[in-house]
Amino acid sequence: MFFRNLYPNQAVYSAYDLDWETLSMVYRGVMFDIDNTLVPHGAPADERAKRLFVRLRGLGMGTMLVSNNGEERVRPFAEQVDSGYVCKAGKPKAGGYLEAMRRMGTTPANTLFVGDQIFTDIWGARRAGVFTILTDPLDPSTDEPQIVVKRLLERPFRRPGHYNVTSS
To answer: How far apart are CA 128 and CA 120, in angstroms?
Structure first.
């Protein structure tokens, strides 16, 4: 069971490539990691991120940012995309995801999570019972040293053919 939770339910190149119209027919809420999922590490929200959140709201989806970063990083980004957030989420613990769903008024059955790291994002969201979508990092050159090491350890879980886990 432990290793199963390290595999995402789905993997895509980018959060911006997802078919949000189809996803919105099943999911009422979406949680995102920020750094290297929506923008390069440390970058402010760009126009693409802002348009995505407008699109999601237009589809009737609630949004939350779930980040291990502090308030000083997460709050300004959340304000730029007009989203709720949980900072210092303690990923991969389930608590931050559960709090985000509580704030959105959603459940694990109708919420999904999108992130770029397996050992924090995917593992934590799977522990919370949420459908997970793994993205490639937008700009790995901006990763902090500890994340570079984690990405090396993630490689076996990013292999093609390992993204067919359909239940959360």
So the answer is: 12
